[in-house]
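In this supplementary section we document a worked example of the pipeline. Step one takes a protein sequence of length 323 as its only input; no multiple sequence alignment statistics are reported here. Step two produces a three-dimensional model, which step three serialises into structure tokens for compact storage. The input and output of this example are shown verbatim.
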Amino acid sequence: MAKKPKSRRVRLRRKNRRRGVSGVLYRLVCCALVIGAGAFAMTVFFKINTINVTGTSRYQPAQIEKTLGVATGDNLFLWGRTSGVQRLLREYPYIKEVKISRDLPSTLNVEIVESPAFAMIPDGKTGCYLISGSGKLLEHAENAAAVKLAPVTGVTVGSRKVGETLGEKDGPAAEQLAALLGALTKNNLLQNVSSINLINLTDMHIGYQNRFDVRLGSSGDLARKLRFLQEVVNTKLSPSDIGVIDLSQPPRANYWPVTLAEVQAASGKTTTAAPAADKPAAPADAAQSAAKPAADAQTTDDAQPADDTQADPDYAADAPPEA
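The serialised model returned by step three reads:
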């Protein structure tokens, strides 16, 4: 029996199928050629001729380049950027951040952001550990007496090594230190802190502006206490005042003058009870100096007794309500 001729529709379908396969193959070949050309260009061109290292005062640019794993002649895009940055952060404790940028066709820019040393933690002998504002151990100094940084008492480094950061795993005092540093940083107060005393975590002290012993009590409501500290110092006290600011009983603050030596002594010991001349009384009643809202309270001269034997604070105010 003679075969029937194939219909015109079937022939067109097969022809279109072959054309579709050819089109896909053509596009794949084109993509492969483009990728190959790009890879060839990346390999042959964009060689690094200049490496600019900026922002570092503690490490030499050659050290940074070596640890980063990059050198002139390397490809601007194909060197191991991620692993190199991780090595820098791991091996150089003072480095806080590394920023990499490129200026085509041949310049690599490496910007280093360093962490300044903020405070020192005694090591129990004659040395100390320098820490950043985030609690990172930056280095160990053999002679603590020569280090002019804010002392931190009541905290031990334990098994932590330089380059690591103190936190809750290092005990309650280290955990409170981390929380306090975070709150101080958030409120932009870190640069004004001259000492931190965490010997008693229910009676925490900070030295402030080298002239105030700030009593924070426990860590509860810490952010609000620090905001109130700013309010009191900036608007209620004069630049010549030296004394104690008691924020341990929010929402109330008390201030009374003491000597500079007493303020400095508070950085290394916990005051459980102030001397009779300095101990603040309960909030003054109507017959004395009634507490005023922080918005309009003023330091009252008549609140300080002439013989320094009465216990009323020179300044007492209630914290403003939370926003």
